[in-house]
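Lab channel / #folding
Pinned by the channel admin:
"Please post every new chain as: sequence first, then the C-alpha cells as a reply. Keep commentary short and put observations after the output so the thread stays searchable."

First post following the new format, from NK:
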Amino acid sequence: MESPKLLEVELSLVLIFICCLSLPVDSYDTGSQLTWSIKDDGSYSFHAGMDQDHFTLNNADVFLQSNGKTYGSGDASLKLTGAKAISGGDATGTYEGTVYDYVAGSTRMSAQIAIYNGGEYVRFTQSFPTGVKGCNVSFLEDVLSSFPSFHIAHTNTTSNLGYLNMYGDMVGYFYAIGDIKTGDDRIRGGLRAGPLVLFDDRGNTVVMSSFSSFMSHNMQYDTKSGVVRFGVMGDVTEIPMHYQVNTILYYSDSGINQAIENWGRVLTTKYHKKSSIMEADFSINYLGYYTDNGAYYYYKTEPNKTYDVTMLDVVAYAASKDIPYGYLQYDSWWYYKGIGNGVKNWTSRPDIFPKGMDKLYEDNGLPVVAHNRYWSSDTTYAKQNGGKYNFYVETEKAIPADTNFWKDLIRSSKTWGLITYEQDWLDREFLDLKITRSNITVANNWLKEMGEAASECDVTIQYCMALPRHIMQSVEIQAVTQARVSGDYHPGNSQWKIGVTSMFAHALYIAPYKDTFWTTTVQSGSPYGLSTEPNTALQAAISTLSKGPVGPSDGIGNTDRNLLMKCCRLDGLILKPSRPITSTDETIMKLAFPAMEGSANAEAEVYTTYSDIHVYSSSKQFMLRFGILLITDLTTAGYSVAPSAMYLDKINMETKMYKAFQGHPGTDTKIYDVDATGMLSIPKCGVKDFQLWHLSPVVSMGNSTLVILGEREKWVPVSSRRITGVEMKDGNFLIDLQGKPTEVITMDFLLDTNLVSVSCTVPDSGTTRVSVHSKTCFYT
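Reply from TO:
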C-alpha cells in the first residue's frame, strides 16, 4: 500500500477504507501523518515529514525461530505464501492495511500492517495460528520473531536524526540520547529496553514500542547492521495457538513531548485506561511522610524506641508544627524476610510493631502506603512451603500464580490502613525467575491479578524499579496510578532529574514519583553519616511539579515547615500543575545534536509545565493556561524561552501578552511583559539558585485587563486545586477559591497594571469567592 501523497505509485493491492467503522476516540492532537509504501512482496517503508527523503524507515528482514531453527525472509526459508488487503476499526479509529502469510517449516505466521486514521499511527501484528514450539534462542536479550524491523542506522535523511532509547528500571531511568550518525552503539534492546523514539531537528518524531503482550514483547537492536527488530522475547520456549504480539509506530510533526503524549493517548484509549483513578488517588493528592531509602527513619528508629513509637512521635511532631501529613509510608523494614532477602511473610514483626499494625493505625489514624519486594522461595504463602496458594518457586525467588492470594493479601491489609500497595523490585522479580522469561503469559498474569485484586479492594498500586515493560503493561491495570521515575534519593544526590522518565509515565496515566527528600540541609544522627542536602528547595519544587506523590522524610525536629508548605494547602492537598513538569524538546535535541544553535548548554536541565483554569461568562467559556519554567545548570548567556515551550500556544490562542515573575530564587521581584510570540530571558544559574518562572496570561474584559498572579509563595501559584473557576460578570472578575476552613489564602492580581493583593479566610464551607475589583471576599 502506498500513501496518496507519494508521486511513485506501486500499489498492487486494492485497499478498502470503511468510513462508517469510525469509533469515538479520546480527544488529542494527532499532529501530522505518515506517508508510506507497502508492497505485496513483503517490503514496506514509512516517511516522516513532507520531504520523504528527510526521515525514512525502510524494512529489514522478517524471521521466526521454530523447532530449533531460524526461518528468515533473507534466505527465503521463511516463505511468503500470500498477501491481502484488510480494513476495519476499533476504539482508536479506522484502519486499512495488508496482511502477509508466512510458513516456517510446518509453522504458520501472519504479519499484519494496519495504518490508522490515514497515517496517524501504524499497528504491526504478529500472530501464530498454529502456535510455535522449540522457539527460544540462545541469547535471551534477542527476539525469536521479527516483525516489524527497520534499518535505522542508515536511514535516508538529509538532516540530523536523533534517538531517545528508554532503558532500565524506574521507567527507563538509564535512557540514552544521541545522534544516529555518531552514537547508535548506545541504543540497547533486550528485556530492560523500552520505547524507542526517533526525531529530527524539525520536530518530526516517531515512537516505536510494544502495543500488546507487553511483558513478552521485546526489542532487539543490532549495532552491526543498524537494524531494530520487534517480536517475542528470546527466552520463550513455546507460543500458544493464535497468540498475537503487536507493535506500534506513532508519528507526529509537533515535537518529542507531543508525540509521546499522543502515543500514550492511543494506548490508553485502546485499553480503556482512564486518568480519573490516578487523579483521585489519595496518596498522590495529599502530602505524606516516607521512610524509604534516603529517609531519616529508613531501617532506623529514635534511640531506644520501637518503630511504632517512632511513627507515633513523627505524627505528634507534625501535629505540633501544623504539618498536614495525610498518610504514612512503611518501607521494607517491617515484614519478614527469607531466602535471598525476599519476602517470607508480609505481616508485621513483633519487634517492629509490638502492638501490631492494626493498633498503630488505630492510634495514629493515618492511612498507609506499604512497601513490598520480591517473594522468597521459602515464602510461607506457597503450597510448596505448607501455604495454601499457588506459586511458581525457584532457587531463591517465587512468584504468585493465584488470584485468591492477591485478594486475601490486600483485603486483610486494609484493616491496618492500606490505601496504596507499593510493589518494589519489579525488575528483579521478572528478570531473576526463569518462569517469567520462558513462559509467555506468567508475568502478564502476575501483574494483572495483582491489579484486579487491588481494584476490587479499592487500593491503588505504586510501581517501583519498574522496567519499561511493566509500565507499558499498566495500561491494562486500572489500579496502577503511580511509579517511581528516579533512582533512590540520598541526601545530596541528583536523582531529581526526572524530566525524561516523567514524559513516559504521564503519557500512560501514571503519576511520576521523584522519591522522598529532606527539607533541611543538616540532620544529625541520620543513617547516612555526614551526608547533607544542599538543595532542599529544588527537591521540594521538583517533587511538587512532578504531579506525583510528595513525601518528605525528615527526622523529628528537622522539618522546614515554610519550605514544605509551599507545595500544598493547609489541609495537605498538593497544589499541582495540570501536567507533570518534563524536559523540553530543545533539551533533548541539544543532547542529541550538541552543535544546535540558539539553545541552552547541554548540561542545563530545562523543564516546563502549565496549569489550566476554567473561565466563564454569560457568553462564553474557555481555559486559561499559566506557564511554569524551571532551569538549572545554565551557563549559556542570553538564553531565552518562548511561551510555546510551556504549551501556552495550545490553549491561549487569543492571548497577546503575558506577565512573567520569578518564583525562585526570588531575588528578582520585577514583573515582566512577555509577548505571546516573544521570549523570556533567563539569567545564568546553578542548582542551588535554580530559576523558576511563572507566566500568566493577560485577560481583557471591556476596558479592564486582569492578570492572575496567584499565591506567589507557592511552587504552583495558580492551581486548579485552589482556583476552581473564574467568572467574568458585570465588568468584574470573580475568582472561586477552595481550601481548609480557617486557612488564610492570599492571592495577587494585576488589575489594569495595578497590583492587587486580597487575603481571604476560608469559611466552614471550604469555599470562598474573591471580587478583584472590590478587593473583597464573599463567604459561602
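NK: Residues 1-30 have pLDDT under 50 and may be disordered.
TO: also worth noting, The chain has three domains: 31-268, 276-375+406-424+440-567, 582-779.
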